[in-house]
Every structure is written in C-alpha cells, then in structure tokens.
Design goal:
The protein contains no helices and 17 strands. The protein is mainly beta. A hairpin with a 4-residue loop joins β14 and β15.
Length: 254
C-alpha cells in the first residue's frame, strides 16, 4: 500500500547479469507490484478491487529517493481499509478505451475519456456483484486482443471488438465462462496486428508467462491461443495438478 515517485535519472544503465540496486525498501511481507512511466503532469489512475477508480496528478505523489518505501497511498487517496490497489495507469497513453476484468470472468470496456475528470475521493469504474472483485485494467487501441487466464489454467483470447463500449458506472459482460470454483487471475492486452506478421519467418515476440502457486513458470507465445468469441470456456493454457498448484499470475513478456 505504499507509493512513490522517483526521477528516471535516479537509475543508471547497468550491464546485463548484475545484481542491480535497491529500487525501494519493503517490509519482509511486502513486495513491489507495479511500476509505470509518466510525466509530472499526467493523471494517474488507481483502480481498486472494489471497482472504484481514483485519480491524481503525478506531481501530487511525493517525490522520493531510490531507497525509501514511499508514502502510504491512504494518505493520498480516500480509499477504504478493505480496498486494495489492483491496477495503476497513466492517462498519457494513446489508448481509446480501458478494459477491465473481474475475478468472476466479467469484462467491461469504457471510453478512456470518461476517466479524465476524476477526484481523489474516487468514482465507480465498474459495478460488481457482491462476491466479485476487480482484477486487472488495461488501455486498448481499438484493435487489440484480450486474453484472460484463470486459476485452474484456462485461457480465452478474443478481439476487443467483441466487447461493446459501456458507461463508466455500469456492470460489464461475460468474458469467460468459469467453473464455480475457478476465477480469473490475470488479463493481458496485445495488438492484433502482431498475430499476423507479413513475413511468415518473423518470430512472435509476445508471450504469456504464467506462474503457479508452487513456483513453476511457463512461457507460451500468444499466437498459440486460438481466437474465440467472448464468453466461451476457453482452452487449457497450462496443466494444473498437485505438483504445479493453481495458477497465481499471468503477464505479457517480450
């Protein structure tokens, strides 16, 4: 729950294979979850698990040196004790929409312009069912693929055009049909044009990295996931058994 702003010049280029330097001091049970690049005049959006969004200018986040842990986000934004920051985005992107995914497999696409005039007290970004929570938020270009990955190793890839734009304070639509004991653990967005290179010898450079609760990782090229329609059951993205444990994270790697 800590956040800080650090000048980009704080970090110097290093040779590959080194130990690196301390980027932020954390407590033993804490870990860094997100890092984004922005200018001081950009609006930074904070999305919480309860479906709310908070906005603040980047310069309003206290600037800090490399080692300190920063400031508690509750001192900057009016979030509740039970709220957790799930996604952070900067409005400096060229995206046209924001797409959100929930643990129960719901997705929602909203025009990015509806998030331009926010306040630190927060607004509703998506209306959630009582037993649901927001998992991930990404900006989209209008011609992207959306890929959802579940805890039990299922995944679905569909064009963002399958999800029609909706208002900000509304519920979403089904993105993937899940088993009762399954839930979405990650969503990634990537350009559709990268799935159809003009040169067939060109390597695909977007992979999905999935991590299991027992520490096993697997990298899969995004083009190996078949294009499907939204709201399907998806395909098996990875084996889930006693050795691997359930999937706990999924992210794009290049």
């Amino acid at each position: 729950g800590y956040v800080k702003r650090v000048p980009r010049t704080t970090y110097r280029a290093q040779r590959r294979g080194g130990k690196g330097v301390t980027g932020m001091t954390t407590k033993e049970e804490d870990e860094i979850e997100q890092i984004i690049a922005a200018t001081t005049h950009d609006t930074i959006l904070f999305f919480t698990n309860t479906g709310k969004v908070f906005g603040t200018k980047a310069w309003e986040i206290p600037e800090s040196a490399r080692q300190p842990k920063g400031q508690a986000v509750i001192n900057i934004l009016a979030i509740e004790q039970n709220e957790k920051i799930m996604s952070i985005l900067s409005l400096n992107s060229k995206g046209k929409h924001l797409i959100m995914a929930t643990a129960k497999g719901v997705v929602k696409k909203t025009k990015i312009t509806e998030f331009e005039n926010l306040r630190v007290s927060g607004l509703i970004a998506i209306r959630l069912d009582q037993d649901d929570s927001l998992v991930s938020v990404h900006d989209t270009s209008g011609d992207d693929y959306v890929l959802l990955v579940s805890k039990k190793g299922k995944a679905i890839k569909f064009p963002e055009g399958n999800a029609r734009p909706m208002g900000r304070a509304t519920s979403g639509m089904r993105g993937i049909k899940l088993d009762p004991d399954d839930e979405v653990i990650g969503m990634e967005v990537f350009p559709a044009k990268e799935q159809k290179p003009s040169d067939k010898r060109k390597k695909f450079f977007r992979d999905i990295l999935t991590i299991s609760e027992h520490g096993l990782g697997k990298r899969t090229p995004t083009h190996l996931f078949p294009e499907q329609r939204r709201a399907g059951k998806g395909v098996k993205a990875s084996v889930v058994n006693a050795k691997t444990g359930k999937r706990t994270a999924a992210t794009i790697v290049t």
